[in-house]
Amino acid sequence: MNDKCPVCGGTIREDTIRHPQEYEGRIVIIENMPVLICDQCGKILLRPETLDRIQKLVWSKSEPERTESIPVYDLAI
Fold first, then answer.
1. Could you give the number of structural domains in the chain?
2. Could you tell me the residue range of the domain that residue 64 belongs to?
3. First and final C-alpha spacing in the chain
4. Which residues, at least 6 apart from 21, have a Cβ–Cβ distance to it below 8 Å?
5. Chain-centre distance of CA 42, in angstroms?
6. 57 phi and psi, to 5 degrees?
């Protein structure tokens, strides 16, 4: 692993996050998603194997762990 951010050159570290993602007009939440985060600029980087796992999970349309309600705000009003 390269420990420097490709954007700013800062130090990156491994972590897990909770990530909302739009897919086919709906929002899905990926929990415990392994990421690399730059301590300097906050850039979030994904390893290719993480992307593969996310795609397989979401595209499979398997039953989620649970369902949550998401509030929606409209700034055009």
1. 1
2. 1-77
3. 46
4. 27, 28, 29, 30, 54, 58
5. 13
6. -65, -50
**Entry pTM:** 0.76
* Per-residue pLDDT reduced to its tens digit, 41-55: 999 999 999 999 988
Compute the distance between CA of residue 12 and CA of residue 14 in angstroms, rounded to an integer: 7
Q: What is the pLDDT of residues 2-38, one digit of tens each?
A: 689 999 999 999 999 999 988 888 888 999 999 999 9
Beta-bridge partner residues of 30: 19
Under 8 Å between Cβ of 64 and 28: yes
- The answer to whether residues 39 and 23 touch, using CB atoms and an 8 Å cutoff, is no
For position 68, which CATH number holds? Answer: 3.10.20.860
